[in-house]
Amino acid sequence: MTSRSNTGSTQTRKKYAGGSLSVMNANSATDLKSRTLKIGIADEVDAWPDTVGDDGDPFGLFEDRFTFFHSSGDWRILALSTPTFVGSSRIDKMFEAGDQRFWNIKCPGCGEEIDFRFKHLEFERKPPYNAYYGAQCCGQVIEAHEKTLLVQRGRFIPTNEDGLYPSFHVDALVSLVTTWDMVASAWWESRADWQKEQRFYNSQLGLPYVLKGDAPDWQRLFGRREDYPENRIPKEGIILVAGVDVQHTGLWVEVVAFGYDRQSWCISARFLAGHTDDPEGGAWLKLTEVYEELFPDEFDGQRRIEAFGIDAGDGGRANQVYCWARLRDRAHPTFGRPGWTTPAIGQPTRVDITILGKKKTKGALLWPVGVWSLKGDHYAALRKKGTPNGAEYDPPGYAHFGKFLDEEYFKQITSEYLEEEAFRGRTRKVWKVGFEENHLLDCRVYALAMADKLGLNRMSPDQRLSVADQIGVPREFAQPEDEEEKPVVVAPPPRRKNRASSWMN
Q1: Are 356 and 250 within one domain?
Q2: Whether the predicted model's global pTM rises above the 0.70 cut
Q3: 317-352: per-residue pLDDT in tens?
Q4: Cβ neighbours of residue 498 under 8 Å, at least 6 residues apart?
Q5: DSSP 3-state helix, strand, coil percentages of the chain (rounded to 5)?
Q6: Which run of H or E residues covers position 416?
Q7: In a domain? residue 213
Q8: How far apart are CA 119 and CA 126, in angstroms?
Q9: Which residue did the predictor score with more confidence, 350 or 429?
Q10: Which of 93, 129, 415, 492 could join 184 in a cystine, given CB atoms 3.0 to 4.6 angstroms apart?
C-alpha cells in the first residue's frame, strides 16, 4: 500500500482471511510487548540490542509473545542471522542448542557423505585463485565446476543427538550464488585486518569470530621500541591525527601518524597538567599550543595535526570541550559508544542550541565513536610481528613505538582486557580495566577514529597519491612496491542543467 504523498508505505500490519501479518521493531519494547503471536521470524538476531530500556533482552520479550499457544503446541519461531563473536552471538548459542545440521554432499571418490570445510579448500595466492576442494575422506580432488551438481544432490545431516530443535548451518562453501574463487579472494583480503577477518568468518564461513582480547605483554612491547625521533613524522606517514583524554587535573594527548596500509607511529605522548574547568585557561592553553604546533617530516616539510579527537564523554568537562573545539575546525568532540556492531565513527549531532531552544546551524558537532571495535583493532595491531621481532617486513597495521616512550605509556595502552559477563539474562564480552590508568589507551582509540574519519580505511590508490602530492610526500611512500603508479585523474565539473528546462521536464 502506497501513501498519498508517494513516500512509500508506513503500514506495519496487514489483515487477511484467517490471520494477520505484522512487522515489528527489535529496538521497540512497545512493539515486542503488544502482540500475541503464533508464528514469528526473527531476522538478524545478532544485530538486536542487548537490552530495550528497562525491559531486558528483546529476544526474551519476543519469545513471550507465543505463550498463548504453548498448550496447543502449534507455535513456531524461525531465528536467523549472520553470527558475530564467540560467547556473545545469539544465533551461535541457538545453533549449539539445536541438532546442528550441516549440508553434506557425496564424495565423488568414495561415496562418503561429507560437509565442506574451509581448511580443505586449496587455492593459489593471486587471481584467478583456481580454487578446488580436497575431500577430507579420501583426498579426492573436487573441482569448482563439480560443486553445483554435488550441492544440489546433498542433504542436511544433524550432528547433535541431544539437540532441542532443528538448527542449520549455511555458508559460502555450499552456496550456489558465489564461487570458491570469491571465498579465496575474501580470505586473502582479510589477513591484514582483524575486522576484515571477522567479516570473513561471519559472512563467508557462517561462524562466530574468536576475538583475542587478552592484553598483550607491555614488557614485550617496551622491548621492541625503535630508534626514531620524537615529534617527527616518518616518511611513510600520510595522515597525522591526535587523541585527547580529558581529566580534571589535565589533558592526556597522543599524536599518531598513519601510513597507507594502517601502519602507525606514535610520535608524541604527553600529559598537559593544569585545571580543565576553564576552556580559556589551564591545560586548554597548552592544548592550543599543540593545535598550532608544526611537526617536521622527513622531506623538509612541516605539517599540523589534521584532526583532534577529544573525549567529551566525561559529563564534568563536556561543556569545556565544546567551547574549546567550537572555534577550531580541526578539533572534534567525541564520545564513546559500546557495542560490537557500532561503527568506528558515526553520524555527528549538533549540541549547541539558541536561546529559543533550536540547534545552531554552525554549532559544535559531537561524534559518536565505536570504542569496542577500535580497541580490538588496536590490540590486533599490537600482536603483529615486524622487523624488530625478526620478520622480513612490517605487516599492514603494524604499530611502531619510539625509544622516547617510557614504561608508563605501554602499561596504559595495554590496560584493558576482554571478559565475559552476564547482562540482563545474556552473556556478552565487554572491556574491563586491568591497570588503573588507561588514558593513553583512550587517546589511541580516538586517534584511530580520527584516521577513519579522514578516510584512511576507504582511500583508493589514486586518492592516496593525491594526498601524498598535497603534503609533499614522494609517491613511492604512499603505495605498495608492487602497486603500479597510476596518474591521478581529475573528473571535469558536472555541467549545470538549465533550471527552466529541468522544471519543464
Answers
A1: yes
A2: no
A3: 888 999 899 889 999 999 998 877 788 898 888 886
A4: none
A5: 30, 25, 45
A6: strand 416-423
A7: no
A8: 18
A9: 350
A10: 129
